[in-house]
Design a protein that fits this description.
The structure is a homodimer. Chain A is an alpha+beta fold and about 350 residues long. In chain A, about 50% of the residues lie in helices and about 15% in strands. Chain A has two domains: about 230 residues, 2-Layer Sandwich (Creatine Kinase, Chain A, domain 2), CATH 3.30.590.10; about 90 residues, no CATH class.
């Protein structure tokens, strides 16, 4: 289990893949009704189940959320390792993370268990296989809430059935700029696929990144869910690729102008807001995909996108910074990270 | 007579100095009433007068405007060697230019003779001395229209008297950005000093450059005119310097951010309009003056400001370019000119 395995193709458009399974324990009430004592018992039971696999045990960290400071918690949200709701909750919570962070298990979020497997690029099947292995391991020891008719029982009925949310994060600058996103979202919705900005429901697209995921968990097997998502993802990728080619063919100068200006600003600004940095990094990503920008790979760019978040900056800096100092820190971080790497 | 002599101090704020004398010949009607034959005679007489000084003769070019193509004429306007009105006129016109271009004499503009001496930086007295020498040379041979009471007679009464317009071109980014320009223009107006954008009356300030000149030509000697202009110029320079120091002390990060972003854009854009280039070059000039930008001197920057004009680009390119191609050419010219020179 190394992070290298959790890497797929199509990184010019597919930033990352995520498989999430929602599970609950039969012999405990749902999270909202759970006492602190029950929560602690349940956490211990889940720890024990996971530790039965010695190989897995050696790469997992078991973290009580109350042991973490707020900044670290917020930085985990920015890295998509935990949900904003989980970060805010005052219940007894625990987090299990693999060393390479491709596995993240939230204990006592909305459901007792929210198991996530993440990879870079398009790797839905790899992530699903890994999630299924972890699910089986939990199932060996724990009594998971399951109903023959409804499948896995979850706190929210929208997760009933497989409890599976499969998602890919796509970089869709040309679909965004050509105003094709609204139509794409509507079309995807008709076949049960949700398209959202990168921080989940209700959020706007940042850095021209979109999360594409299944809406339905009932009536489809895990494999079917992943196949359907893969199908629509391939279609969206094709559309984005067509628009990129068209832009390069029809307006190459304007395209290059924007990419090179953005790369220059990232390497030279002294003050930069998170939202400006996200927009410029989107241009940089597009520039890499079209061969205009060299010297930096997508994985470094992905890390950068997390590193520029306010909480991640505070963690790196050792303490919270006032907004202006944070914008200076961000500009300096980007200058230092990119200047040595980028070559035209 | 070399261009090096026509260079003064204060180049961090004073881009250039110009002395202009308006003169008319007594024995010819004013330009609007002049026949083509008379104009040709007059041009010949002026040529002859100037050629009496052998040292001067060897550095002057005598150019019939009808021998020049429109692009070259327009490029001379962009370089401030001739006025837009002179370029547009259909009369018999001639231009006398020194090789180093610090002397420009328009023959048959609004007045028979518009004699200009230009220098970089603040060098009002040097330019005036040179203009007076040229005027004396003309006066030796020609019958200049002069009245004991009104002084030199000119086509427009606003030039009656000395016929002198002394002007300095100042770079006033901080006065502009702090909205102090309107007050400055009003204050200067009260004491007979006009402040205009760089292409003369009615034009808006480009590149945050302003032309400061005397409004009155009656009631003051040439020396008094220049002294008054020098006095107000020194005051404006002080105001601009105070604001620059204040900006660096109070908002250094924002100041540096803007300068470095502009320098980066100038070195990396692929398409650039003249007006964007002028704005960015203004930041670059400010950056040089504050020691943030090194490797390029003010004189190179001044040339660049002329070189990016549409007509100058067409002349360099060998033919007129459509607007988009011109914007590409401009971006490439700036990239090439600056990249090799700039160091942080």
């Amino acid at each position: 289990m190394s992070v290298a395995e959790f890497s797929g193709d199509g990184k010019d458009i597919v930033v990352s893949t995520r498989i999430r399974l929602a599970r609950n324990l039969k012999n405990y009430p749902f999270a909202t009704k759970l006492s602190a004592k029950q929560a602690r018992e349940m956490i211990a039971a889940i720890y024990e189940a996971l530790q039965k696999n010695p190989a897995l045990k050696s790469v997992l960290s078991f973290i009580k959320l109350s042991d973490l400071d707020d900044l670290t918690i917020q930085s985990f949200v920015e890295q998509h390792l935990i949900s904003p709701e989980f970060a805010k909750s005052t219940a007894e919570r625990s987090l299990v993370l693999s060393n390479d962070r491709h596995i993240s298990i939230m204990i006592n979020e909305e459901d007792h268990i929210r198991l996530q497997v993440m990879g870079t690029g398009l790797c839905l099947n790899k992530c699903l296989d890994e999630a299924v292995k972890l699910d089986l391991l939990l199932d060996e020891t724990l009594m998971l809430a399951f109903n023959e008719e409804l499948g896995y029982l979850t706190h929210c009925p929208t997760n009933l059935g497989t409890g599976l949310r499969a998602s890919v994060m796509l970089h869709l600058p040309m679909l965004t700029r050509c105003n094709e996103i609204t139509k794409m979202i509507a079309d995807a919705g008709k076949i049960g696929i949700a398209v959202r900005g990168i921080y989940g429901e209700g959020s706007v697209a940042r850095s021209e990144l979109y999360q594409i995921s299944n809406q339905f968990t009932l009536g489809f097997s895990e494999q079917e869910t992943v196949e359907r998502l893969k199908g629509i993802t391939d279609q969206i990728i094709s559309q984005e690729q067509i628009l990129r080619k068209a832009a390069l063919a029809q307006a190459r100068d304007e395209f290059e102008d924007r990419v090179y200006r953005s790369a220059a600003t990232l390497q030279n600004a002294r003050i930069m807001s998170a939202s400006e940095a996200e927009n410029l990094l989107s241009d940089l990503r597009l520039g890499i995909s079209c061969g205009l920008i060299n010297g930096i790979d997508y994985d470094s760019l992905n890390s950068m996108l997390y590193d520029i978040g306010p909480a991640n900056i505070a963690v790196k800096n050792g303490s919270t910074l006032p907004p202006k100092e944070r914008d200076k820190y961000r500009a300096e971080y980007l200058r230092n990270s990119l200047r040595s790497k980028l070559k035209e």
